[in-house]
Amino acid sequence: MRHFVLIQYDVTAMKRSESALHRLAHYDALTGLPNRVLLHERLLTAIGAADSGLWLVYLDLDRFKLVNDTLGHRAGDVLLKEIARRLRRAVRPTDTVARLGGDEFVLMFPDMPDEAHMVQAAQRVLDVIAQPLLIDGHEFFPTCSMGAAGYPQDGADQDALMRHADIAMYRAKEAGRNNCQFYASSMNQRMLERLHLEGELRHALERDEFVLHYQPQVELASGRTVGLEALVRWNHPKLGMVPPDRFIGLAEETGLIVAIGAWVMRSACAQNMAWQRAGLPRLRVAVNLSARQFNDRQLIDTVKAVLAETGLPAGDLDIELTESSLMADVDGAVATMHELKALGVQLSIDDFGTGYSSLAYLKRFPIDVLKIDKSFVRDIVASPDDAAIAVSIILLAHTLKLHVIAEGVETAEQLDFLREHGCDDVQGYYLSRPLPAEAVETLL
């Protein structure tokens, strides 16, 4: 006689737990995208199966901190989930979109025929990301910076590919954001230089290495100097005078721009007040605010403190803002601008025409001045298109009862054109290069 013992277990709960643990280990909880662990597994498999045609793209959202700072982390999470959905739509079913954390994503493109096809794929991603986005009634215009590295030419293993795609992404940020850069070996040396420069930059303020130069703004009707734009320069003891395009972007990325910007504003206002007390003509001094400064929660308190400390009349301070810093969060920008106007300062939009140029929003901004970007002034005599744009900006500004300043004037012909079409003020090398404070005193 045979006996059987049957033991039955319900493993449903255990399987569910295993599935949940697997998902937690391999997928991002917020977006549902593959995480770093699963990305590395898929990348390792793809490298083993590919002879060529495998591309890795490192993607970082531009100005993501702005959303968290202005609307809170919940709004930031909403943005990240929407970006994840957009990225899925922008790639092929065989591609991988992973989130590493924060606002960092990685895209893996296996079986991509060549670099030309990769360029097209990258452009699709840029276009999809850049669509307007509404969060809590606020309209945002997200953009991203991307760096691409290909196997095997840019790296023979996953670590090299990730590292080189990351380096290329930082090059995209240096190139102005909202673009994709492809890795080149020369970027390694550039990254080492960048790390060294960042270390030096962190000590530059405490070592008192920054100086201000001032570019005169001339009134066309009278020929008088009526304003000065304060431009920061870094006088490094070993590197010499470091040009702004080498350190301003770096300062913006690292957050150092807030402290540097406060120093610029305080120094420029103090210098202007010193000139006035010395009996020189009363002038406005223009100070540029980066997007990060403009969205800093301490901005209003900083401006108040600077005006109180220096004694400069508020109307003699002109704060210049870029279109892109305003359009990232229009409602928040309008609120901040009204707070600044309540202090009595002047507000200008710098580089007008190069950003979003939304006329619907322009009429909402409580501004005093529009500045025509030098890219339009450069070919204003030779290019009918640039001439038409410049004239349109002048007419638009005057219709809105705004002052117009053209920057980048380098020839007599450009000056005559702007005078003929009613531009109010001009600045540029034809009139004067940026000057140190002592040279400005001589000029005045």
Walk me through the topology:
Elements: H1 12-26, H2 36-49, E1 54-61, H3 64-71, H4 73-90, E2 96-101, E3 104-109, H5 115-129, E4 133-135, E5 138-140, E6 144-151, H6 158-174, E7 180-182, H7 186-204, E8 210-219, E9 225-236, E10 240-242, H8 244-254, H9 257-277, E11 284-288, H10 291-294, H11 299-310, E12 317-322, H12 323-327, H13 330-343, E13 346-352, H14 359-362, E14 369-372, H15 374-377, H16 384-399, E15 403-406, H17 412-420, E16 425-426, E17 435-436, H18 437-443
Parallel strand pairs: 6-7, 9-11, 11-12, 12-13, 13-14, 14-15, 15-16
Antiparallel strand pairs: 1-3, 1-6, 2-3, 4-5, 8-9, 8-16, 8-17, 9-10
Helix pairs in contact: 3-4, 4-5, 7-8, 9-11
Strand order of the biggest β-sheet: 8-9-11-12-13-14-15-16
Q: C-alpha Rg, in Å?
A: 27 Å
Structural class: alpha/beta
Question: How much helix is in the residues?
Answer: 40-55%
Mean pLDDT: 89
Count of runs of 4 or more consecutive helical residues: 18
Question: Sheet bearing the most strands, described?
Answer: 8 strands, mixed, barrel
Distance between the termini: 118 Å
Uncertain stretches of 5 or more adjacent residues: none
Beta-strand percentage range: 15-25%
- The gross shape turns out to be elongated
Q: Count all strands and give the number.
A: 17
